[in-house]
């Protein structure tokens, strides 16, 4: 994989985290192919089976809508493994710590979820985009937090 492709794919994961944390569905939709798939695990969708969402517009509004009720979020992209399949396709795995801050009585709590994204990418008109993103939950914990500066 060319270094420029690796940088673009790493940047794509970071831009995804930023778009979610800033609740920006327009920026989020621009990171996916038009017919992209997003798969949520049973641990997050409240069912016994994964849920697949299709289309960049539906994905972006669904993801932003899922965090809209929270005070704030912070998605920290950690290591990322990337493999190129062809000149226009690649796949990989990105580890992420997802912090979900919510009010509880007079305090705030952080529902911290350690996740991995199983990603497929497609290069469209010279730009790498997500063509499929599957979220895998490894573990979670809920801890008190003190908000500073907001």
Textual characterization of the structure:
It contains 4 helices and 6 strands. By secondary structure, the chain is of the alpha+beta class. A hairpin with a 2-residue loop joins strand 4 (89-104) and strand 5 (107-124). The termini are far apart.
Helical content stands at 25-40%
Strands, count: 6
Number of helices: 4
| Global geometry | globular
Structural class: alpha+beta
The pLDDT mean sits at 95
Low-confidence stretches: none
Distance linking N and C termini: 42 Å
Main β-sheet description: 6 strands, mixed
Walk across the major sheet and give the strand order: 2-1-6-5-4-3
Order of helices and strands: HHEHEHEEEE
Q: What portion of the residues fall into strands of 2 or more residues?
A: over 45%
Task: Give the topology.
Elements: H1 3-21, H2 25-29, E1 32-40, H3 42-45, E2 51-54, H4 56-67, E3 72-84, E4 89-104, E5 107-124, E6 127-145
Parallel strand pairs: 1-6
Antiparallel strand pairs: 1-2, 3-4, 4-5, 5-6
Highlighted features:
4 helices, 6-stranded mixed sheet, about 150 residues, single chain, alpha+beta
Offer a quick outline of the entry.
The chain has helices spanning 3-21, 25-29, 42-45, 56-67; strands at 32-40, 51-54, 72-84, 89-104, 107-124, 127-145.
